[in-house]
Amino acid sequence: MPDITLTTLQSLKLKGEKITMLTCYDATFAQAASQAGVEVLLVGDSLGMVLQGHDSTLPVTTAEMAYHVASVKRGNEGALILADLPFMAYATTDQAFVNSATLMQAGAHMVKIEGAAWLAETVRLLAERGIPVCAHMGLTPQAVNILGGYKVQGRQEAQARQMRADAIALEQAGAAMLLLECVPSELAAEITQAVKIPVIGIGAGSAADGQVLVLHDMLGLSLSGRVPKFVKNFMAGQADIPSALRAYVNEVKAVTFPGIEHGFSA
Ligand code: KIV
After folding, report:
1. Three-class SS of 91-137
2. DSSP 84
3. pTM of the predicted model as reported, rounded to 2 decimal places
4. What distance in Å separates the CA atoms of residue 36 and residue 32, rounded to the nearest whole number?
5. Which of 13, 126, 128, 143 has the fewest CB atoms nearer than 10 Å to its CB?
6. Can you tell me which atom of ligand 1 is nearest the CA of 214?
7. CB 87 within 8 A of CB 58
8. Do residues 58 and 64 make contact, with C-beta atoms less than 8 angstroms apart?
């Protein structure tokens, strides 16, 4: 059991204190980030892009995710470990069971799946069997070929209405957390108000209950040279990586990050 549990995250939401999350893929960074006060370490399938050099997250396998979860577990000092189920690892509920069990046995405390209300049955079945689920909505990178690129989602009113309804359906199905990526700040604020579970944002404004960034992005490293609008380089002005990690935690807690310039309008 980590020091940070779902109960901790729920009470942070109730108190109005922001939750800090960063992606993390190895033991050394897990130790540094958890020591800096990052509450949730996300072993994201973004590792397919930032570690493996692919142009999307699609090639990542469950075995690769399990390897990185186990590495993060060995360095972690008390943070909650959230692990992505990669592309096609939850296409059926049977696959979701088997692959979630692999990640939980490797050291994850919660799994993340990308989608919308169509995931409700999977969320319910996993939660009933002791596996907490974070539902990732908005820009879902595993669906990049359907979405036609890495674009802001929920700008049209019909899409926004659907996203609000999906968030409530996923909470009712037993989701423990929501993650909103690249959605207009006002819509993210409405969804955060509408559900009791913590909502974490990336490119979703400052009203979400917490923030996440990709570790390499916030350390100013970019393989492609393209830096998304919602990223801030926390290495700027800092002497070392532990200081940059602490600066991220402090700015999220103080609600000075993200600024208006890091968000999207409808
Ligand atoms: O895989 C990942 O790193 C993610 C974040 C972008 C939220 O899902």
Report:
1. CCHHHHHHHHHHHHHHCCCEEEEECCHHHHHHHHHHHHCCCCEEEEE
2. E
3. 0.98
4. 6
5. 128
6. 3
7. yes
8. no
Could you tell me the distance, in angstroms and rounded to a whole number, from the CA of residue 2 to the centre of ligand 1? 21
Sign of CA dihedral 35, 71, 45, 161: negative
Confidence at residue 1, expressed as pLDDT on a 0 to 100 scale = 67
Distance CA 99, CA 109 (A): 14
| Pair 176, 197: CB distance under 8 Å | yes
Length of the chain: 266
pLDDT above 70: residue 262: yes
Label residue 260 exposed, middle or buried (CB < 10 Å: 0-12, 13-18, 19+). Answer: exposed
Number of the ligand 1 atom closest to the C-alpha atom of 179: 7
Q: What is the rounded average pLDDT for all residues in the chain?
A: 97
Q: What is the CA radius of gyration of the chain?
A: 17
State yes or no: pLDDT of 258 exceeds 80. Answer: yes
Burial status of residue 10 (CB atoms within 10 A of its CB: 0-12, 13-18, 19 or more): middle
Known catalytic residue: 121? no
Which of the four pLDDT bands, split at 50, 70 and 90, describes residue 8? Answer: very high
Based on DSSP, count helices (H) and strands (E) in the chain, helices before strands.
11, 8
**Tokens 């109005």 map to which residue?**
16
Quick check: 2 pLDDT over 90?
no
Give the residue whose CA is nearest to atom 1 of ligand 1: 44
What residues does ligand 1 touch, defined as CB less than 6 Å away?
Answer: 23, 42, 44-46, 84, 136, 179, 181, 202, 212, 214
Predicted pLDDT of residue 85: 98
* Ligand 1 atom with the shortest distance to the CA of 84: 1
